[in-house]
Amino acid sequence: MVKLSAQDSINGPATKSDARHLNINSFYSLLHAQVIIGDWKDEYNHHRRHSSLGYLPPAEYARQCTHQMETDDSQNVRTE
Question: Which backbone phi and psi does 77 adopt, to 5 degrees?
Fold first, then answer.
């Protein structure tokens, strides 16, 4: 059995849905933990909307995101 301690939680779950998936003190196996946490990461990054990202999931925000950098000769260079 794989056990999680309070120290294993860095930020804690953001919603009740997150808590439902991560509010397990022990898993049956390493594979069980990987599946539960993998599902949570997929939901959090690809489906759950974040207000700080304009109500987009992080993956969608990253896909749409473009940045402008200034080089030493003051020309803008687009990076993706």
Answer: -120, 125
CA distances to 6, 12, 17, 28 from 3, rounded to whole Å, are 10, 16, 21, 9
Prediction pTM value? 0.52
Q: Which amino acid is at 67?
A: H
DSSP 8-state assignment for residue 56: B
Sign for the CA dihedral angle at 24, 25, 29, 35 comes to positive
| pLDDT tens string 47-65 | 999 999 999 999 999 988 8
Q: What is the mean pLDDT of residues 63-71?
A: 73
